[in-house]
Amino acid sequence: MSESENPTAVLRAAVRERRMPDPRTRRALLESDDPALARQAGRILKNLAVDGERPREVEVAVLATCTVGPFEPLLRAQLVGAGLLPAVRTADYGTFDMTLATGSFTRDGDPGLIAVLMDSGYFLPGDFGAAEPDVLEKYVEARLEEFRTLLAGALNHTAATVVVHTVPLPAQVRDGIISVHARAQVVRSWYRLNAALLALAEEHAQVVAVDLLGELAEAPVQACDVRLHRYGDLPYGDGALLLLARLVRRVAQARSGLSRKVLALDLDNTLWGGVLGEVGAQGVQLGGLYPGNCYTELQRTVARLREQGVILVLASKNDQDQVDRVLTEHPDMVLRPEAFSARMVDWSAKAGNLRRAAEALSLSTESFVFMDDSDFERAQVADELPEVAVVSAAGDPAYLVDSLVRHGWFDVMSLTDTDRKRPELYRNRALRGDFSAGFDSSEDFLRALDLKVEVTPATEYTIGRISQLAARTNQFNLTGIRYDEAATRRMSEEAGHLVLSVSVTDRFGDEGIVGALWVERTPEAWRVLNLVLSCRVLSRGVERAALGWLAGEAARAGARTVEGHYRRSDRNGVAADFWTGAGFTRADSPQEPDTEVFTRDAATAREIAPEWIALNERNGSPHE
Hints:
By secondary structure, the chain is of the alpha/beta class. Strands 11, 12, 13, 14, 15, 16, 17, 18 and 19 form a nine-stranded mixed beta sheet that branches. A five-stranded parallel beta sheet has the order 2-1-3-4-5, sandwiched between helices. Helix 1 packs parallel to helix 3 (35-44), helix 3 (35-44) packs across helix 4 and helix 5 runs parallel beside helix 6. The N and C termini lie far apart (58 Å). Mean pLDDT is 90; it is low at 618-624.
């Protein structure tokens, strides 16, 4: 979308042509701070339908203690901006408690996400004595307990992820208490209320708590429109509702596996101040006073992202030897050479370098975020790789950190051990690439890798990583069914199902959990409902090893056959021949016309595990 194009006209064209808006338009929806534009966009997108390959869908139920107002279109615009196809429905006004108590939000089908919109009026009495803060405090505590009880009951009706948020205390209430001591007591009790709302996420695995109060403290928007509050029970201004819509979108984005994995960074006037080729290694601005402290803080933030699993790539037009000198020798450099899983430091076009980095890491450019100060470089990457999220490092360096983190590109539902190890895993991948160059055949290379595969029933500690793989794996995802954490946990506990994790180690280290299987078990057949495998371990035979292990367990349990499913998508073509390549034969599937079904005798299917892989079965058999 060019700057001269009318964004609403672009959205109307997408709706008319029954397609998702292009990546550049979607990114503009996410980055706009104009609630009027977002509201208009959300209304246009209400009738969005998509022909052909559909994007990931999300159904959201909005339950509110007040008038919803423009929150629905604001949320829809944010969800489409994230690449999701949303269906948003709202409960009737004035039915908040009843809707939670009866679970009526599931009457039209269980939603994937429930956004709870709350205002202070839900927790405050209609009238209270300002001279009796103890009474007010007890009332707030009682209302909190009522809400906690209603929420716990509602969770029995749904498998949805429920998003709750902190609630601001109106200035009219706070300033209407003239005793400074009583005012502090009331404010303190309100902070306890918000702390308790945040703690709901610790009490219930299905609940996610977001901090609207913190967002309002940082954003130049009015939290409350007093006139609209009195006129139509609409307590929040449009700017505040847009902030909340962004927070809910970030949850939906993470829940759907659309978070980014890679941060590609420029150097000059991005990770440090100044142009290295002009000022030399000693002249770059890092540390000390402004602006050097701004670049140091960005590097610290990037280092924290790396600690949480974000893969770092250098993308700089510079001389490699000068860059190495700064990375290695500069005393204020936070990010040393080993922090980067790939370094593209040369004078080539950055879009091409990002493609090469993606190939080296065996990742899609859709998983990249690119940060650069140059308008030209950002425009060139946005033009050639519109799927890349482009972040500006131009302007005042004091805002570098905010520009990078404010949109939640890297959000995940929970952090796993594999996430924390990911940067090192991808550095090891590059080492494997160098190692493979010394062998005459791929089988010789695979034997030399000393591969070990462990297939293990899901545990409380691995369910988060398994569901994360379901959400984020696209290429080797045999059916595209993305079982979320609640469904995965439920299946892992049922006698008729089995959920397995697949872990890999080799001579270069531990890859962690890289794959998963969801299996339906009957006395006669074990059916693989889905099998996913991280792209970083493809072509090593890991998927055959896992399937061979499963077939052996099925045969030991007395099952005669193993059945596999495949449903084609626009991304999983690499797995199209997996079942036939493993010796399975096609079977009729009248009940699932869009799914191909394959079968093989369980006793012979266990023989497909490659001989260069050692299968570790120390955890026992799942059928025992």
